[in-house]
Amino acid sequence: MSDNPVVLVERDGSGIVTVTLDRPDTKNSVPRAGWIELAEVFGDIAGRADDRVVVLTGAGGDFCSGSDLRGGDSADSPRRAMRIVNAALLAVRDLPQPTIAAVSGVAAGGGFNLALACDLAVAEETARFSQIFARRGLSVDFGGTWFLTHMLGLHRAKELAFFGRMLPAADVHALGLLNKVVPEGEALAQAYEWARELLALAPLALSQTKEMLNLAASGSFHDSVLREAAAQNINGTTEDTREAIRAFLEKRDPVFRNR
């Protein structure tokens, strides 16, 4: 980690991890070191059984304005720089635990796509979103070409990517890119409410469901049902699944141990 961390990590002891982008003076834009740090943080979370749900947010009233375009490492080639950015993207996207983006203020460029990389996204009604890349002389990155095309269809994806307009949260929700819009100041509370609900579910089975849904977006129907069968075979070997069935039969709440 750097001496001046970009990413703050807080654990509440229940299994909820809050990851906060902490550069409010730049609307939480992410420098080169910040992408490396984000990949390390999510890599650490991926290996921890006590981390059950992740809430991703930004400090100071904004979510993330994308990559910090000021300065940069002159020794980095664009290809090397994008490897660093993509490592952070894959660390977020492939995390076994469910992720919830709590968006306030600005979510632009890579910040918009960082929210789309999460499993669930809630935004305040005053939040603003933009695929700003074209207005900065750049092409879409941080998974945006995949997210937009798969979530919107080709023509709507091109509209957002070509024009880079700033859109209110209500419009982004209407497009299907957000799960919920809430009043100003309530995104984080809604994210924690969902996180507590997810804590009540069997973590291994939930992780498998997440992985299969992600893969189904680009795979065949046949591949999906084969993965479903394989996942159910694994579930049948876990203590948590046996506990869930016992609890159902005994008419009580299950106690899951992530094994």
Automatic annotation (TrEMBL):
Top-level division of the source organism's lineage: Bacteria
Family matches, as CDD domains: crotonase-like
Keywords: Lyase
Keyword Mitochondrion: no
Gene3D superfamilies named in the record: 2-enoyl-CoA Hydratase, Chain A, domain 1, Lyase 2-enoyl-coa Hydratase, Chain A, domain 2
Keyword hit for Endoplasmic reticulum: no
Protein family according to the UniProt entry: Belongs to the enoyl-CoA hydratase/isomerase family.
This protein's name: Enoyl-CoA hydratase-related protein
Lineage of the organism: Bacteria, Bacillati, Actinomycetota, Actinomycetes, Streptosporangiales
